[in-house]
Specification:
It catalyses: L-cysteinyl-[protein] + (2E,6E)-farnesyl diphosphate = S-(2E,6E)-farnesyl-L-cysteinyl-[protein] + diphosphate. This protein is mostly helical and 448 residues long. Helices cover 47% and strands 1% of the residues. A two-stranded antiparallel ribbon has the order 1-2. α14 packs parallel to α17 and α16 runs antiparallel to α17. Bound molecules: farnesyl diphosphate and zinc ion. Zinc ion binds next to loops.
Length: 448
Protein backbone atom coordinates (compact mmCIF):
# COMPACT_ATOMS: atom_id res chain seq x y z
CA UNK A 1 0.00 0.00 0.00
CA UNK A 2 1.22 3.47 -0.85
CA UNK A 3 2.32 5.42 2.22
CA UNK A 4 0.56 8.69 2.99
CA UNK A 5 2.92 11.64 3.04
CA UNK A 6 3.63 12.54 6.65
CA UNK A 7 3.28 16.11 7.85
CA UNK A 8 5.22 17.89 10.59
CA UNK A 9 3.70 18.99 13.89
CA UNK A 10 3.90 22.63 12.70
CA UNK A 11 2.10 21.81 9.45
CA UNK A 12 -0.64 20.03 11.37
CA UNK A 13 -1.09 22.98 13.76
CA UNK A 14 -1.22 25.39 10.83
CA UNK A 15 -3.79 23.22 9.08
CA UNK A 16 -6.00 23.10 12.19
CA UNK A 17 -5.87 26.88 12.63
CA UNK A 18 -6.72 27.49 8.97
CA UNK A 19 -9.62 25.10 9.36
CA UNK A 20 -10.98 27.04 12.35
CA UNK A 21 -10.47 30.44 10.75
CA UNK A 22 -11.93 29.55 7.37
CA UNK A 23 -14.81 27.83 9.17
CA UNK A 24 -15.63 31.14 10.89
CA UNK A 25 -15.31 33.08 7.62
CA UNK A 26 -17.57 30.62 5.76
CA UNK A 27 -20.14 30.86 8.54
CA UNK A 28 -20.01 34.66 8.31
CA UNK A 29 -20.38 34.61 4.50
CA UNK A 30 -23.45 32.39 4.78
CA UNK A 31 -25.21 34.71 7.29
CA UNK A 32 -27.80 37.30 6.35
CA UNK A 33 -26.79 40.97 6.34
CA UNK A 34 -28.27 41.73 9.76
CA UNK A 35 -26.35 38.84 11.37
CA UNK A 36 -23.18 39.87 9.56
CA UNK A 37 -23.53 43.40 10.91
CA UNK A 38 -24.00 42.04 14.39
CA UNK A 39 -20.96 39.74 14.11
CA UNK A 40 -18.76 42.66 13.06
CA UNK A 41 -19.87 44.91 15.92
CA UNK A 42 -17.19 45.71 18.43
CA UNK A 43 -19.85 45.62 21.18
CA UNK A 44 -18.47 48.42 23.31
CA UNK A 45 -20.70 47.74 26.32
CA UNK A 46 -19.53 44.15 26.60
CA UNK A 47 -15.91 45.22 26.17
CA UNK A 48 -16.20 47.89 28.82
CA UNK A 49 -17.95 45.53 31.21
CA UNK A 50 -15.15 42.94 30.88
CA UNK A 51 -12.47 45.61 31.29
CA UNK A 52 -14.01 47.53 34.22
CA UNK A 53 -14.65 44.29 36.16
CA UNK A 54 -11.02 43.25 35.63
CA UNK A 55 -9.74 46.56 36.93
CA UNK A 56 -11.81 46.26 40.12
CA UNK A 57 -11.26 42.62 40.98
CA UNK A 58 -9.38 39.64 39.56
CA UNK A 59 -9.78 35.96 40.48
CA UNK A 60 -7.12 33.72 42.10
CA UNK A 61 -5.90 32.46 38.69
CA UNK A 62 -4.28 35.88 38.18
CA UNK A 63 -1.79 35.26 41.00
CA UNK A 64 0.70 34.13 38.34
CA UNK A 65 0.67 37.72 37.07
CA UNK A 66 1.65 39.12 40.46
CA UNK A 67 4.87 40.59 39.00
CA UNK A 68 2.92 42.20 36.15
CA UNK A 69 0.34 44.31 37.95
CA UNK A 70 1.23 47.62 36.21
CA UNK A 71 0.83 45.73 32.94
CA UNK A 72 -2.72 44.73 33.92
CA UNK A 73 -3.43 48.42 34.65
CA UNK A 74 -2.06 49.43 31.25
CA UNK A 75 -3.72 46.67 29.20
CA UNK A 76 -7.10 47.46 30.77
CA UNK A 77 -6.94 51.27 30.93
CA UNK A 78 -5.47 51.63 27.47
CA UNK A 79 -8.23 49.37 26.08
CA UNK A 80 -10.84 51.55 27.79
CA UNK A 81 -9.19 54.68 26.34
CA UNK A 82 -9.15 53.16 22.85
CA UNK A 83 -12.89 52.65 23.20
CA UNK A 84 -13.17 56.36 23.96
CA UNK A 85 -14.15 55.87 27.59
CA UNK A 86 -12.68 56.72 31.01
CA UNK A 87 -12.93 55.33 34.54
CA UNK A 88 -14.60 57.00 37.52
CA UNK A 89 -12.62 59.08 40.07
CA UNK A 90 -12.41 56.27 42.60
CA UNK A 91 -10.84 53.80 40.14
CA UNK A 92 -8.54 56.50 38.82
CA UNK A 93 -7.33 57.46 42.31
CA UNK A 94 -6.89 53.83 43.31
CA UNK A 95 -4.77 53.21 40.22
CA UNK A 96 -2.57 56.25 40.86
CA UNK A 97 -2.11 55.26 44.53
CA UNK A 98 -1.34 51.66 43.58
CA UNK A 99 1.28 52.64 40.99
CA UNK A 100 2.76 55.08 43.51
CA UNK A 101 3.36 52.09 45.77
CA UNK A 102 5.07 50.21 42.91
CA UNK A 103 7.52 53.11 42.41
CA UNK A 104 10.93 52.25 43.87
CA UNK A 105 12.80 54.62 46.18
CA UNK A 106 15.68 54.63 43.66
CA UNK A 107 13.38 55.19 40.67
CA UNK A 108 11.45 52.99 38.26
CA UNK A 109 8.42 50.80 38.91
CA UNK A 110 8.31 47.17 40.02
CA UNK A 111 5.65 44.56 39.23
CA UNK A 112 3.93 45.27 42.58
CA UNK A 113 4.61 47.13 45.84
CA UNK A 114 8.09 46.27 47.14
CA UNK A 115 9.15 44.45 43.96
CA UNK A 116 12.38 45.11 42.06
CA UNK A 117 12.10 48.03 39.58
CA UNK A 118 11.97 46.69 36.04
CA UNK A 119 11.93 48.49 32.68
CA UNK A 120 8.88 46.62 31.34
CA UNK A 121 6.71 47.42 34.37
CA UNK A 122 8.09 50.98 34.40
CA UNK A 123 6.90 51.39 30.78
CA UNK A 124 3.50 49.93 31.70
CA UNK A 125 3.19 52.24 34.74
CA UNK A 126 4.21 55.37 32.80
CA UNK A 127 1.86 54.54 29.92
CA UNK A 128 -0.98 53.91 32.40
CA UNK A 129 -0.44 57.28 34.09
CA UNK A 130 -0.22 59.02 30.70
CA UNK A 131 -3.46 57.29 29.72
CA UNK A 132 -5.19 58.51 32.89
CA UNK A 133 -3.77 61.99 32.34
CA UNK A 134 -4.23 65.02 34.59
CA UNK A 135 -1.98 66.68 37.16
CA UNK A 136 -2.28 64.03 39.87
CA UNK A 137 -1.37 61.07 37.61
CA UNK A 138 1.41 62.79 35.67
CA UNK A 139 3.06 64.48 38.66
CA UNK A 140 3.12 61.17 40.56
CA UNK A 141 6.03 60.05 38.34
CA UNK A 142 9.37 60.90 39.90
CA UNK A 143 11.24 61.99 36.75
CA UNK A 144 14.58 62.65 38.42
CA UNK A 145 14.65 59.20 39.97
CA UNK A 146 13.37 57.62 36.76
CA UNK A 147 16.23 59.29 34.96
CA UNK A 148 18.71 57.72 37.46
CA UNK A 149 17.05 54.32 37.02
CA UNK A 150 17.33 54.50 33.22
CA UNK A 151 21.02 55.45 33.48
CA UNK A 152 21.57 52.51 35.83
CA UNK A 153 20.02 50.16 33.25
CA UNK A 154 22.22 51.49 30.44
CA UNK A 155 25.07 49.17 29.37
CA UNK A 156 28.42 50.26 27.97
CA UNK A 157 27.62 48.43 24.69
CA UNK A 158 24.76 50.87 24.03
CA UNK A 159 21.85 48.63 25.03
CA UNK A 160 19.79 48.49 28.24
CA UNK A 161 19.17 45.80 30.87
CA UNK A 162 15.61 45.05 32.00
CA UNK A 163 16.57 45.39 35.69
CA UNK A 164 19.65 45.45 37.93
CA UNK A 165 21.83 42.51 36.73
CA UNK A 166 19.04 41.60 34.29
CA UNK A 167 19.01 40.54 30.65
CA UNK A 168 19.80 42.99 27.87
CA UNK A 169 17.51 43.04 24.84
CA UNK A 170 15.59 45.18 22.34
CA UNK A 171 12.55 45.32 24.66
CA UNK A 172 14.70 46.98 27.32
CA UNK A 173 16.01 49.49 24.76
CA UNK A 174 12.51 50.38 23.61
CA UNK A 175 10.89 50.64 27.03
CA UNK A 176 13.78 52.81 28.31
CA UNK A 177 13.72 55.16 25.35
CA UNK A 178 9.92 55.36 25.20
CA UNK A 179 9.81 56.37 28.87
CA UNK A 180 12.67 58.87 28.43
CA UNK A 181 11.02 60.42 25.40
CA UNK A 182 7.57 60.85 26.96
CA UNK A 183 8.98 62.18 30.25
CA UNK A 184 11.31 64.54 28.37
CA UNK A 185 14.46 63.15 30.01
CA UNK A 186 16.13 61.71 26.89
CA UNK A 187 19.74 62.84 26.36
CA UNK A 188 23.01 61.81 24.67
CA UNK A 189 24.02 59.56 27.53
CA UNK A 190 20.88 57.43 27.10
CA UNK A 191 21.05 57.29 23.31
CA UNK A 192 24.83 56.72 22.95
CA UNK A 193 25.53 53.46 21.08
CA UNK A 194 21.84 52.51 21.13
CA UNK A 195 21.47 52.59 17.34
CA UNK A 196 24.50 50.26 17.01
CA UNK A 197 22.93 47.78 19.40
CA UNK A 198 19.54 47.74 17.57
CA UNK A 199 21.31 47.48 14.23
CA UNK A 200 23.15 44.39 15.44
CA UNK A 201 19.74 42.75 16.08
CA UNK A 202 18.38 43.14 12.52
CA UNK A 203 18.55 39.67 10.97
CA UNK A 204 19.15 38.26 7.48
CA UNK A 205 15.35 37.97 7.13
CA UNK A 206 14.89 41.72 7.54
CA UNK A 207 12.99 41.76 10.86
CA UNK A 208 14.56 42.46 14.25
CA UNK A 209 15.34 39.84 16.90
CA UNK A 210 15.46 40.23 20.68
CA UNK A 211 19.26 40.23 20.85
CA UNK A 212 22.13 39.80 18.40
CA UNK A 213 21.83 36.41 16.67
CA UNK A 214 18.18 35.79 17.65
CA UNK A 215 15.34 35.12 15.25
CA UNK A 216 13.39 38.09 13.84
CA UNK A 217 10.13 38.54 15.74
CA UNK A 218 7.23 41.00 15.51
CA UNK A 219 7.40 42.11 19.14
CA UNK A 220 11.07 42.96 18.92
CA UNK A 221 10.70 44.40 15.44
CA UNK A 222 8.19 46.90 16.76
CA UNK A 223 10.49 47.73 19.70
CA UNK A 224 13.59 48.08 17.53
CA UNK A 225 11.96 50.16 14.81
CA UNK A 226 10.19 52.48 17.28
CA UNK A 227 13.47 52.98 19.17
CA UNK A 228 15.36 53.86 15.97
CA UNK A 229 12.67 56.39 15.02
CA UNK A 230 12.66 57.99 18.48
CA UNK A 231 16.47 58.41 18.41
CA UNK A 232 16.38 59.59 14.81
CA UNK A 233 18.56 56.80 13.42
CA UNK A 234 15.99 54.78 11.49
CA UNK A 235 17.75 55.29 8.17
CA UNK A 236 20.59 53.10 9.46
CA UNK A 237 18.37 50.00 9.29
CA UNK A 238 17.93 48.06 6.06
CA UNK A 239 14.42 49.43 5.59
CA UNK A 240 13.59 47.63 2.35
CA UNK A 241 14.27 44.22 3.86
CA UNK A 242 12.46 45.19 7.07
CA UNK A 243 9.43 46.27 5.03
CA UNK A 244 9.58 43.06 3.00
CA UNK A 245 9.77 40.92 6.15
CA UNK A 246 6.91 42.62 7.98
CA UNK A 247 4.37 42.67 5.13
CA UNK A 248 4.93 38.95 4.54
CA UNK A 249 3.98 38.14 8.13
CA UNK A 250 0.29 38.67 7.21
CA UNK A 251 -0.92 35.21 6.25
CA UNK A 252 -3.85 33.51 4.55
CA UNK A 253 -5.92 33.95 7.73
CA UNK A 254 -5.46 37.72 7.26
CA UNK A 255 -4.06 38.12 10.77
CA UNK A 256 -0.34 38.45 11.38
CA UNK A 257 2.09 35.83 12.67
CA UNK A 258 5.00 36.86 14.93
CA UNK A 259 7.72 35.04 12.99
CA UNK A 260 8.25 32.93 9.91
CA UNK A 261 6.38 29.60 9.90
CA UNK A 262 4.56 30.31 13.18
CA UNK A 263 0.83 30.60 13.79
CA UNK A 264 -1.37 33.67 13.36
CA UNK A 265 -2.07 35.51 16.63
CA UNK A 266 -4.32 38.53 17.34
CA UNK A 267 -1.69 40.39 19.41
CA UNK A 268 0.52 40.80 16.33
CA UNK A 269 -2.24 42.94 14.88
CA UNK A 270 -0.45 45.70 16.76
CA UNK A 271 3.17 44.49 16.83
CA UNK A 272 3.26 43.99 13.03
CA UNK A 273 0.70 46.50 11.70
CA UNK A 274 2.27 49.42 13.61
CA UNK A 275 5.69 48.87 11.92
CA UNK A 276 3.90 48.67 8.54
CA UNK A 277 2.32 52.09 9.09
CA UNK A 278 5.48 53.60 10.59
CA UNK A 279 7.54 52.41 7.62
CA UNK A 280 4.99 53.50 5.04
CA UNK A 281 4.76 56.98 6.54
CA UNK A 282 8.56 57.20 6.68
CA UNK A 283 8.84 56.21 3.01
CA UNK A 284 6.19 58.75 2.03
CA UNK A 285 7.74 61.54 4.08
CA UNK A 286 11.17 60.89 2.51
CA UNK A 287 9.96 60.22 -1.03
CA UNK A 288 11.40 56.72 -0.92
CA UNK A 289 10.28 54.12 -3.44
CA UNK A 290 9.18 50.75 -2.20
CA UNK A 291 10.76 48.13 -4.44
CA UNK A 292 8.50 45.40 -5.73
CA UNK A 293 5.28 47.12 -4.81
CA UNK A 294 2.98 49.33 -6.81
CA UNK A 295 0.51 50.19 -4.14
CA UNK A 296 2.52 52.31 -1.73
CA UNK A 297 1.90 55.46 -3.72
CA UNK A 298 -1.03 57.76 -3.15
CA UNK A 299 -3.66 55.23 -4.11
CA UNK A 300 -7.23 56.18 -4.67
CA UNK A 301 -7.95 52.75 -3.30
CA UNK A 302 -10.43 51.41 -5.81
CA UNK A 303 -9.81 47.84 -4.73
CA UNK A 304 -10.88 48.95 -1.32
CA UNK A 305 -14.47 48.95 -2.62
CA UNK A 306 -14.61 45.25 -3.05
CA UNK A 307 -14.27 44.68 0.70
CA UNK A 308 -17.83 45.54 1.10
CA UNK A 309 -18.82 48.59 2.71
CA UNK A 310 -22.45 48.18 3.00
CA UNK A 311 -25.40 50.17 1.93
CA UNK A 312 -25.13 52.65 4.79
CA UNK A 313 -21.68 53.75 3.66
CA UNK A 314 -21.98 57.42 2.79
CA UNK A 315 -18.96 56.99 0.50
CA UNK A 316 -20.97 55.09 -2.04
CA UNK A 317 -22.46 58.24 -3.46
CA UNK A 318 -19.21 60.19 -3.48
CA UNK A 319 -16.98 61.20 -6.32
CA UNK A 320 -13.77 59.34 -5.52
CA UNK A 321 -11.75 61.16 -8.13
CA UNK A 322 -12.11 64.50 -6.50
CA UNK A 323 -8.68 65.31 -5.13
CA UNK A 324 -9.59 68.49 -3.38
CA UNK A 325 -7.54 68.89 -0.21
CA UNK A 326 -9.80 71.40 1.41
CA UNK A 327 -11.42 70.91 4.75
CA UNK A 328 -14.83 71.59 3.38
CA UNK A 329 -16.75 70.34 6.40
CA UNK A 330 -18.01 67.51 4.28
CA UNK A 331 -19.13 65.19 7.02
CA UNK A 332 -22.30 63.80 8.45
CA UNK A 333 -23.26 62.26 11.74
CA UNK A 334 -23.05 58.47 11.68
CA UNK A 335 -25.68 58.22 14.36
CA UNK A 336 -23.14 56.78 16.81
CA UNK A 337 -21.62 60.00 18.04
CA UNK A 338 -18.90 59.80 15.35
CA UNK A 339 -18.73 62.08 12.36
CA UNK A 340 -18.27 60.30 9.08
CA UNK A 341 -15.79 61.97 6.73
CA UNK A 342 -16.24 61.94 2.99
CA UNK A 343 -13.54 60.98 0.52
CA UNK A 344 -13.46 64.33 -1.26
CA UNK A 345 -12.24 66.10 1.85
CA UNK A 346 -9.12 64.09 2.54
CA UNK A 347 -8.09 62.32 -0.63
CA UNK A 348 -4.62 63.90 -0.79
CA UNK A 349 -3.87 62.85 2.72
CA UNK A 350 -4.81 59.23 2.12
CA UNK A 351 -2.83 56.22 1.08
CA UNK A 352 -3.39 52.54 0.31
CA UNK A 353 -1.93 50.63 3.30
CA UNK A 354 0.90 48.19 2.56
CA UNK A 355 -0.97 45.42 4.37
CA UNK A 356 -4.56 44.23 3.96
CA UNK A 357 -6.19 46.46 6.54
CA UNK A 358 -9.79 45.28 6.08
CA UNK A 359 -8.64 41.65 6.07
CA UNK A 360 -6.81 42.26 9.35
CA UNK A 361 -9.89 43.92 10.86
CA UNK A 362 -11.89 40.87 9.77
CA UNK A 363 -9.50 38.53 11.60
CA UNK A 364 -9.75 40.59 14.79
CA UNK A 365 -13.53 40.98 14.71
CA UNK A 366 -14.45 37.45 13.60
CA UNK A 367 -11.65 35.30 15.06
CA UNK A 368 -10.31 37.19 18.10
CA UNK A 369 -13.40 38.95 19.47
CA UNK A 370 -15.23 36.93 22.15
CA UNK A 371 -19.03 36.88 22.47
CA UNK A 372 -18.94 38.12 26.08
CA UNK A 373 -16.30 40.78 25.62
CA UNK A 374 -12.52 40.61 25.40
CA UNK A 375 -10.25 39.37 22.60
CA UNK A 376 -8.08 36.29 22.16
CA UNK A 377 -5.05 35.09 20.26
CA UNK A 378 -6.97 32.74 17.90
CA UNK A 379 -10.04 30.44 17.86
CA UNK A 380 -10.10 27.89 20.75
CA UNK A 381 -7.98 30.16 22.98
CA UNK A 382 -9.45 31.99 25.97
CA UNK A 383 -9.67 35.78 26.15
CA UNK A 384 -7.17 37.76 28.22
CA UNK A 385 -6.31 41.38 28.90
CA UNK A 386 -3.02 41.31 26.97
CA UNK A 387 -4.71 40.16 23.77
CA UNK A 388 -7.63 42.52 24.37
CA UNK A 389 -5.20 45.45 24.59
CA UNK A 390 -3.14 44.54 21.52
CA UNK A 391 -6.09 43.42 19.36
CA UNK A 392 -7.79 46.76 20.06
CA UNK A 393 -4.53 48.72 19.59
CA UNK A 394 -3.94 46.93 16.28
CA UNK A 395 -7.53 47.41 15.20
CA UNK A 396 -7.09 51.14 15.74
CA UNK A 397 -3.84 51.07 13.73
CA UNK A 398 -5.60 49.23 10.88
CA UNK A 399 -8.54 51.66 10.88
CA UNK A 400 -6.23 54.70 10.75
CA UNK A 401 -3.72 53.16 8.30
CA UNK A 402 -5.31 54.88 5.31
CA UNK A 403 -4.24 58.30 6.57
CA UNK A 404 -0.81 59.71 5.77
CA UNK A 405 -0.69 61.48 9.12
CA UNK A 406 -2.35 61.40 12.52
CA UNK A 407 -4.57 64.38 11.77
CA UNK A 408 -6.50 62.80 8.91
CA UNK A 409 -9.55 60.91 10.18
CA UNK A 410 -10.59 57.59 8.59
CA UNK A 411 -13.43 57.37 6.12
CA UNK A 412 -16.39 55.07 6.68
CA UNK A 413 -14.98 52.68 4.08
CA UNK A 414 -11.76 52.23 6.09
CA UNK A 415 -13.66 50.73 8.98
CA UNK A 416 -14.90 47.16 8.77
CA UNK A 417 -18.44 47.02 10.17
CA UNK A 418 -20.27 50.16 11.18
CA UNK A 419 -18.48 53.47 11.77
CA UNK A 420 -19.36 53.02 15.44
CA UNK A 421 -16.44 50.54 15.48
CA UNK A 422 -14.01 53.44 15.06
CA UNK A 423 -11.42 53.48 17.84
CA UNK A 424 -9.33 56.35 19.13
CA UNK A 425 -6.05 56.81 17.23
CA UNK A 426 -2.86 55.77 19.02
CA UNK A 427 0.59 57.31 18.97
CA UNK A 428 2.39 54.62 16.97
CA UNK A 429 5.69 54.93 18.86
CA UNK A 430 4.30 54.70 22.38
CA UNK A 431 0.89 53.04 22.05
CA UNK A 432 -1.07 55.51 24.12
CA UNK A 433 -4.06 57.32 22.63
CA UNK A 434 -3.12 60.52 20.79
CA UNK A 435 -4.96 63.01 23.01
CA UNK A 436 -3.36 61.58 26.15
CA UNK A 437 0.05 61.57 24.50
CA UNK A 438 -0.30 65.24 23.56
CA UNK A 439 -1.36 66.19 27.07
CA UNK A 440 1.63 64.36 28.58
CA UNK A 441 4.13 65.91 26.15
CA UNK A 442 2.87 69.37 27.03
CA UNK A 443 2.94 68.60 30.76
CA UNK A 444 6.51 67.23 30.75
CA UNK A 445 7.68 70.02 28.49
CA UNK A 446 6.53 72.51 31.10
CA UNK A 447 8.05 70.39 33.91
CA UNK A 448 11.54 70.47 32.34
C1 LIG B 1 6.89 46.79 24.99
C2 LIG B 1 7.23 45.36 25.15
C3 LIG B 1 7.65 44.88 26.47
C4 LIG B 1 7.16 44.59 24.07
C5 LIG B 1 7.30 43.12 24.05
C6 LIG B 1 7.29 42.70 22.63
C7 LIG B 1 6.96 41.24 22.45
C8 LIG B 1 5.53 40.85 22.28
C9 LIG B 1 7.92 40.35 22.35
C10 LIG B 1 7.62 38.95 22.04
C11 LIG B 1 8.38 38.01 22.87
C12 LIG B 1 8.41 36.60 22.26
C13 LIG B 1 9.70 36.03 21.89
C14 LIG B 1 7.31 35.95 22.07
C15 LIG B 1 7.31 34.60 21.42
O1 LIG B 1 6.38 33.90 22.03
P1 LIG B 1 5.81 32.57 21.36
O2 LIG B 1 6.92 31.67 20.92
O3 LIG B 1 4.85 32.02 22.38
O4 LIG B 1 4.97 33.13 20.18
P2 LIG B 1 5.10 32.95 18.58
O5 LIG B 1 4.89 31.51 18.29
O6 LIG B 1 3.97 33.80 18.08
O7 LIG B 1 6.44 33.47 18.18
ZN1 LIG C 1 -0.41 36.73 21.28
Amino acid sequence: MEELPSITVSQREQFLVENDVFGLYSYFDACDIATQKFLLEIERDKQLDYLMKGLRQLGPSFSSLDANRPWLCYWILHSIALLGDTVDDELENNTIDFLGRCQGSDGGYGGGPGQLPHLATSYAAVNTLVTLGGEKALSSINREKMSCFLRRMKDTNGGFRMHDMGEMDVRACYTAISIASILNIKDDELTRGLGDYILSCQTYEGGIGGEPGSEAHGGYTYCGLATMIVINEVDRLNLDSLMNWVVHRQGVEMGFQGRTNKLVDGCYTFWQAAPCVLLQRYYLAHDLVLHGSSHISQGTDEDHEEHAHDEDDPEDSDDDDDDSDEDNEDFEDSGHGHRVHHTSTYINRRVQPIFDSLGLQRYVLLCSKMPDGGFRDKPRKPRDFYHTCYCLSGLSVAQHAWSKDEDTPPLARDILGSYANLLEPVHLLHNVVMDQYNEAIEFFHRAA
